[in-house]
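Extended Data, panel c. Modelled sequence:
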Amino acid sequence: MKHRFMVLDVFRGVFASLIFCFHLHFYAGPPILNNGFIANSDLFVDFFFVLSGFVISYNYQSISISRELFLFYKKRFSRLYPLHLLMLFVFAGIVLLKHLIAGHFPEKLPNDPNNNILTFISNLFLLNSVKMPYASNGATNPGWNQASWSISAEMIAYLLFGAIMLYITHRSLLKYRMWFYLVTAILALTILSYATGGFSMMYTYDYGFLRGISGFFIGAFCFTIFDHSYLYFLKIRPFFFTLAETVLILLMLWMVSLGGVLKRFGLAYEILFFLCIFIFSFEKGALSALLKKPLFLRRMGAYSYSIYMIHVPFITLFDILFMRLLKMPLPAYNYLFILEYFVIYIVSGFTYRYVEMKFYFKDRSSSGSRPKRLP
C-alpha cells in the first residue's frame, strides 16, 4: 500500500520553522523566542534524520544492481545539492557585501574567520559534518551556511544505506534488513560515544556524520517495525491513537524544554522521535486529522527543506538591515521575527518550485517517488 505520510511532512515543516526560531533566539531577548523550548529546538535536526531513514527505507526496499544504486545516489544528490550549492554562493555574496559596506558603520562588522577558502571547499564537497583541521587557517568550524552540516551528514547516510541495500539484496538477506539497520545505528552511536567520551549527540561540524547515520538507521529500523505491524495496528481504535499522539506531543514539549539537562543523553531523543514517527505514520488519531487539514501546514511541510536551508543567510541579512543599519533595539524582535519568517516562507515557496523541483531527477523506472508539488 502506498502511503503519503502527510502528518510527518507537516512535522518536518513545523520543526524546520522551530529551528529558524532557535537560530534567531541568539539575537533576541523577548521570552517568545528566549525560552527553554526554543533554546533547545536544534534537537529537531535529529527528527529529520530519523524521518529521512523512515521514508527512504520505505521508498527503497531493495537495490539489486549497480545501476539502481547509481540512480538512488543520483536522485538523492539532485534532491539536496542544488539548493545547498545555491545557498553556499548566496552566503559567499553576503560575506562579500559585509566587506563592501563595512566602512559605513561606526563599529566594525564582525569578520568570521570560519568563512575562508578551505571551509568553502569543505562545504562545496559536503564534508562539513566530518572533523577536519580547520584551525590551521584560523577557523574552528566549517562556517558559511551552518545549517548545511546536516545535509553533509544526510548524504553520508545515503551513501552507506545504498551500499548496505545493494549488499543485502545481492546476498538475499533482505529478510534480515531490520537487523542490519539496527546494528548500523548502534555502531554509529558506539563510535560517537568512544570518540567524544560521552553519550551526548549534539555534534555538528565534527562528528555530525555519526549523529546523522545513527538517526537515519534508527528511522530505517522504525520503518521495518511499521511494515511488519501495519495490519495489526490498523485494527486499533482511533481513540487509542489520539491518546498516544497527545501523550507523545506533551512528552516532546517537555523533553525538548529540558534539553539543557537531557541533551547529554542524546539517544533519548532518537527514541522519542522513533515513537512519534511510528505512531503518527498511521494518521489515525484526532491530532493527525487536525494537522492534515490546513493548506498552510501542508505547504510548510513541502517547503521544509527550503525553510531549513535559507533561514541562516536571511537571519544574517535581517541582522545587518534591522540591527546595524536601522539601529532597532532587541525588543523589536517581539514582532520582527514574524516578518522575517513570512519573508523566509515566501522565498522558500519560490526555491521549492524553481530550485528543488527544477533540478530533482526523476527516473520512471526506479522505485523512489517524487515529492508532490502543492498548489
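The CA atoms of residues 61 and 337 lie 42 Å apart. This feature is highlighted in the accompanying rendering.
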